[in-house]
Design a protein that fits this description.
The protein is an alpha+beta fold. The chain folds into 3 domains: 2-173, no CATH class; 185-316, no CATH class; 342-401, no CATH class. Helices cover 41% and strands 17% of the residues. It contains 10 helices and 14 strands. The strands form 3 sheets. It has a 7-stranded antiparallel beta sheet. Strands 10-9-8-11-12 form a 5-stranded mixed beta sheet, sandwiched between helices. Strand 3 and strand 4 form a beta hairpin. Helix 4 (208-225) packs antiparallel against helix 5 (232-266). The chain is elongated and about 80 Å long. The two termini are 49 Å apart. The structure holds zinc ion (ZN). Zinc ion binds at residues 326, 328-329, 331, 345, 347-348, 350.
Length: 403
């Protein structure tokens, strides 16, 4: 299986200059080819072939006065850029035809100068040394090997993020290293108040530094919105915000990596609820909190690590009524308002923590639970019986769901 290994790197000012030229060329070739594809599409023609795009926007473009500076950078990242464009189109086409899993893929977009920049080199365009990595027409970039590269990489991407930091991301082929089996399974409920609740009853909150940084980010965003676009002060405020955002991303990644590793280590089967994250982000009140929580990243990490370490990772449909059903007897309590954190089952009178109950149900829905005992089928309670119990219970329940 393929894995990415990422390291920070420190180019000298002249290397930074060479890199910015390279990023510019990669971006230009991508944007030129994309503009051409869009034109062809509007004219009712098919997408031009990758080989034709390569010829037209790299080989021939170099001969024109307009684009002769493309000669000053290595050819490999330029070709890779158009290969990536081809891949982006294929993903989009497959997604349109319903041949691709996951959320719908959008068509490729134009690349912007202010956003994250990258250039990809395959074998032949770079060479790994003891304390540096050599790139054609850029030179030897100083690198800090924070961990060892397991094998020789097949390709490497030079990245400059919007905070101005440089990274090298290597693609290497690794063999999965299966962990010894355990008989522990876990269901995970992701939430806004608590980041994750496990079916074991454990609750995991966001780390404090993350919360503090979120607050500061809100302040900096407000500050930036008051500046005039394009002014010096605007630029300064933008950099400050980008730097904080980069730090925030690191803090969150670190937290999610540690948490996912621990969960994969301790459990054989991991069941997660498929959250409609993009749908939830449309809800503005919750949007800030959710998009910052990194649920999507958490899921991706669990998935990848499960494959790497030989664990079973399962995602259950978000239409399972996980928070509405009693995890002890299977009684349907009906839809609970988000403000209700604790409730008592009308049938078996167990007091439930909303999130822990949901996590237990997620594990059951995945078909892996010890609490299945005595839960043969859904328990039916008559409206009368339920109404009688309701008077003594502190929760509000919509009676339409008792059927
Ligand atoms: Zn119950």
């Amino acid at each position: 299986m393929k894995a990415r290994y990422r390291y920070r790197c420190y180019p000298t000012p002249s290397q930074q200059f060479a890199l910015s030229k390279l990023f510019g060329c990669v971006r230009k070739v991508w944007n030129d080819a994309l503009a051409h594809c869009i034109e062809e599409y509007k004219a009712g023609n098919k997408k031009p072939k990758n080989a034709d795009l390569q010829k037209r926007f790299i080989t021939q473009a170099k001969k024109t006065k307009d684009r002769e500076w493309l000669k000053e950078v290595s050819n490999i990242p330029l070709q890779q850029s158009l290969n990536d464009l081809e891949q982006a189109y294929q993903n989009f086409f497959k997604s349109c035809k319903g041949q691709r899993k996951g959320k719908p893929v959008r068509p490729p977009k134009f690349k912007k100068r202010r956003a994250k920049q990258s250039a990809r080199f395959r074998q032949g365009g770079f060479k790994v040394h003891e304390n540096s990595v050599y790139f054609a027409k850029v030179g030897k970039l100083k690198i800090v090997w924070s961990r060892e590269l397991p094998v020789a990489p097949s390709s490497v991407t030079v990245i400059k993020d919007s905070a101005g930091r440089y990274f090298l991301s290597f693609v290497v082929e690794i063999t999965p290293e299966f962990l010894s089996k355990t008989n522990r399974n876990v269901g995970i409920d992701l939430g806004i108040k608590t980041f994750a609740t496990l079916s074991t009853g454990e609750k995991i909150d966001d780390p404090k530094p993350l919360k503090n940084r979120l607050q500061r980010l809100r302040r900096l965003s407000k500050n930036l919105s008051r500046k005039t676009r394009g002014s010096k002060r605007y630029e300064r405020a933008r950099t400050r915000k980008a730097r904080l955002q980069a730090k925030l991303k690191d803090t969150r990644s670190d937290f999610l990596h540690k948490l996912s590793s621990q969960i994969i280590n301790e459990n054989q089967v991991i069941v997660l609820e498929d959250l409609n994250v993009s749908g939830m982000i449309k809800n503005r009140k919750l949007s800030r909190a959710i998009s910052d929580l990194g649920w999507r990243q958490f899921r991706t990490l669990l998935e990848g690590k499960a494959a790497k370490y030989g664990r079973e990772f399962q995602v259950i449909s978000r239409w399972e009524p996980t928070s509405q059903v009693c995890s002890c007897c299977g009684f349907r309590a009906g839809k609970l308002d988000l403000s209700i954190r604790e409730w008592i089952c009308l049938n078996c009178e167990t007091t439930h923590d909303r999130d822990i109950n949901a996590a237990k149900n997620i594990l059951v829905a995945g078909g892996h639970s010890e609490t299945l005992n005595g839960r043969g089928g859904r328990h039916k309670t008559s409206v009368k019986e339920a109404a009688a119990r309701e008077t003594s219970t502190p929760i509000r329940i919509h009676s339409t769901l008792y059927q």
